[in-house]
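Duplicate of earlier report; LysR family transcriptional regulator input re-posted below.
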Amino acid sequence: MATDARRLSFLLAVHRAGGVLAAADLLHVTPSAVSQQIQRLEREEGVTVLDRGPRGVTLTPAGRVLAEAAERIEGELVSARKELAALGDDVAGTVTVASFSTVTVAVLVPALVALKEDHPGVEVVLTDMEYADGVRALRAGEVDVVLHERDEHTRPNAGRGHRDVPVLDEPWRLAVPTSMPTPGSLHELAGARWVGPDPSTAAARALGRLGAEIGAELSVRHSFYDFGVALALVAAGEGVALLPALALGSGIPDGVEVVTMPGLGTRRIVARHRQSRHEPGPAVAAFLEAVGEVAAGIDLG
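Output:
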């Protein structure tokens, strides 16, 4: 009996989602429908595909073999759809993008406007997602492009089967409380108090680099992920913050002075996509081109 590809898709959903309930949400069906498809798959193949335990389900060795086959089938179908779209006169398809707020507002939204004019058949779906989650989604085929950030001195780590496309290099800026003297060099900041960026961010890596260049252990308090929170803390006199230029585009609150100086470096925005014989497809390529054109026109002052 031939393996039912639809049943394999249910197994793949359980594997990616981590359980039957989560897979049901992902597929927009009931949990019982997922369980029935898995049971039928096991009967048809004569193997057990899931280990069912008190902490959830995991794939058996046979289940992993079938899940890998499902991924290959899914990949071939995606490639076929993209090739069919490329045969037409116009580029068409859906591009799912994981990004974060500063880049979405300054780059991606204007790129969507341009795409509607140049390639009306391309539909872009944006989702806010942290970098690690975005990379996992890219590997799983759940998104087509991941926008991420890194300090200029951080080595790229795209990995096999992925490619990083530089989008924008933007300078780091200092946000300084107006209650303190304006610093003229990095070494004047040796005794300053800093508002600390979340450790997972490019700003944290850049701040660590500055501390090494200054040659002093920086005094850090608080922790921010949102740049608006950082500016509010600086305005309250809580410390100095290192922020990328795009974070300052929405206005500077009272009590904050923006300072530029040599040695701060830059934040690089990168678009990561899958790279293979079939990818990126025409729709993803059109999206990346639009993003690059918008980024090239941004005035970072």
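The CA atoms of residues 178 and 255 lie 5 Å apart.

Merging into the original ticket.
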